[in-house]
Amino acid sequence: MSAPGLEIDLTLPLPHFELRVKTSLPGSLTAVMGASGAGKTSLLEAVAGLRPQARGRILAQEAVLLDSRTGLALAPERRRVGYVPQDAGLFPHLSVLENVRFGARADAAAVDSAIDTLELRALVARRPRSLSGGERQRVALARALATRPRLLLLDEPLAALDVGLRERILPYLLRVRDEWKTPVLYVTHNVGEALALAGHLLLLRDGRVEATGAPFDLLATPGMVKASEDGVENLFPGRVRTHDPAGGVTSVELSAGQTIALPLAADRALGMQVTIAVRAEDVIVSKGLPEGISARNIYEVRVTALSRTGPDVTLRCAPAATGKTPDWIVRVTPAAVASLGLEVGQRVFLAVKSHSVRLV
Known about the structure:
The protein is globular. Strand 10 and strand 11 form a beta hairpin. The protein is about 20% helix and about 35% strand. The protein is of the alpha+beta class. The chain has helices spanning about 40-50, 95-100, 110-115, 135-145, 165, 170-180, 190-195, 220-225, 335-340, and strands at about 5-15, 20-25, 30-35, 55-60, 65, 70-75, 80-85, 150-155, 185, 200-205, 210-215, 235-245, 250-255, 260-265, 275-280, 285, 295-310, 310-320, 330, 345-350, 355-360. A six-stranded mixed β-sheet has the order 7-8-9-3-10-11, with helices on both faces. It has a five-stranded antiparallel β-sheet with strand order 2-1-4-5-6, with helices on one face.
């Protein structure tokens, strides 16, 4: 088994409670969730070295960042931790290129790789004030990556963006996760983001660890049930494949060649990266191949997990063809589970109306 990406044994006094986190996290992307005020941002700031009151021990990729017993507390600039706050925090007087270079210690290769990953080459001469919110977040991510961090901290990078900009960022977060192989702590309130991005979840409640584990496995915990009250979205990255003005639909290619139809979005260029969203509550489950229905998107899947989540039951469904993606999250009533006889391993069909699919 590989060494953990991050080990935390931390105590931090806060105005309303003491943050106490003791956990070992894998070297991949971990979502950090919990109600407002649970201590999520304070945890990131402590790991980054921005909370000098923090006590305990923190290791990132086996490098000791904090060890109060020996008096070791690395300064923020020596921790090699990339921190991206909600507001991006760019220097307004510097160009995009100068912002990305800042702190990179003349590592031109890292700067070029970060610019390419975030597709910023056409923007390098511009200043932050001329960029959209999504572009500014991409620059902030590139600046953090250009330092070749041993750990990346992202504090709700999508929260401050308009709905129309979010789909421009999620595919890049997936690229950062998959191409850079850097451990990430990703703070979010969005259950769909956690399911789409994270292989692991750290759930905080009033400064304590409520639970850790795979995001789907924790959907039944009180904190996740609360976060899911407004619904759960399937979030899938893809590329615009075709436009059909006569039929009123746009086709987006998802992973492994699957496609999904949505209402015509002719303003999105062919080949453009987008993120589509489908509420788990809007997916219809059928035991047999649906026929004579208006839903254009039909997928054969296997039920791989089934969990009672509050008043509903949440299913995780993998494409019937082995090795294909994406997995779907579906929410149905317990009555529907009983009437359909749903169980793990069963093959069923999912039906999704085009108008239930949106760009986020």
